[in-house]
Amino acid sequence: MQATLLLDDGTKIPGRAAGAPGVTVGELSVYNGHDAIHRLTDPASAGQICAFTQPSVGTWGVNTEHCETGTPWLRGLIAREIAPIPSNWRSAETLDFFLRRNLVTAIEGIDTLELDRYAAEKQIRRCAVVSGDFSGWDALLAQVRSYRGGDPFPAAVKTPVTYGSGKNAVAHAAVCDFGSSHGLTQLLNSIRVRVTLLPPYDAPTIFSRGGYDVLILPNGAGSPRSHPGITEGLRGLIASDVPLLGFGLGFRFVAQAAGARLLPMRRAHRGAWLPVTGLRTGAVLYTRQDHGQTPEEPLPPGMTVTHRNAADGTAEGFTLEGKPVSAFHFLPCSDLRLGGTGEILSAFFNLLRRGDISDAG
Fold first, then answer.
1. Dihedral over Cα of 45, 48, 49, 55: its sign
2. Euclidean distance between CA atoms 288 and 13, whole angstroms
């Protein structure tokens, strides 16, 4: 069956239908990693139609160990090829079957590297994928151009939920749950940190009542500019000198609360193995990222950049002068052996335990 990719500038690109038949509209994102199933099931992907620049996706197939959650959150998938036969002894099903079973519309046969270049050049933000015959192109284009997304935190907890025992715990972290996967929770539990997930809109208020050592703001979908209430709550916590640690979307929330202005990026950072330089040590981390905004520079007084993207120089990490606050635009890795943010989390809680959190940057 034929399929069509419709961009928000009116461009139509033909391809082959994959996944479930239908019509889907969302934010266009471009991702350079192989891990399609991780991307599909990460709640931070809510509202997006993702184009994978790897020549073939789904080569690992699908198994529950690769899933961030049990539900796909991408609204659609764009690929050069969806591998018909997985090469992984743990694979339980093909990616295409997973897409069909979960009613996710996809298109293959697209030159996704050229799409990445064109989208960056023309600043394409939204798109639609159409399977089969279709005639309502004008109405669909209007729908694409007006798309603003739905609930950015559809998988967030509604009441506090705690993971890990208090016995032998080195700290109790509150996590503002933007609908992030359980990967961060498992990582924190592995370094003996008890975790309580808090509803995102109530997290600053609940945290201020006490009982927690640090508030962590993880990755998620959406933009801080759409949630001024959360930002105001964080401003109050920053003024109270409580420890804050942000990643991904959390980085942008902390940056906005500290007075920075967020700007859209010409080319978003989405994917794996993106190089980031630590300015204090000169070490280069290869990181996983998922964002399309960056703080405008120069940053407000008191914000000190600690990490920069080695490719375009944008700020990837900062601390607040005289405050126990650190934030990083790259994302935690679920395997401590791979270093990067795993090492950062371990170092952060070591400093917290020693009472020297002011050096967390």
1. negative
2. 29
Where is the domain boundary, 146, 177, 203?
146
Q: What is the CATH number of the domain that holds 34?
A: 3.50.30.20
Sign of the dihedral through C-alpha 323, 289, 183, 159: positive
CB 132 within 8 A of CB 17: yes
Is the model more confident about 91 or about 141?
Answer: 141
Task: Identify any residues that bridge with 126 across adjacent strands, giving them in sequence order.
Answer: 27
Decide if 6 contacts 144 (C-beta within 8 A). yes
Task: Work out whether strand 193-198 and strand 171-176 pair parallel, antiparallel, or are unpaired.
Answer: parallel
What is the spatial distance between Cα 178 and Cα 159, in angstroms, rounded to a whole number? 13
Render pLDDT for 182-230 as a digit per residue (tens, 0 to 9): 778 888 888 889 999 999 999 999 999 999 999 999 988 888 988 999 9
Q: End-to-end alpha-carbon separation of the chain, Å?
A: 53
Residue 234 structural domain: 161-359
| Buried residues in 132-146 as b, exposed as e (16+ CB within 10 A) | eeeeeeeebbeebee
Question: Strands 126-131 and 284-295, how do they pair?
Answer: unpaired
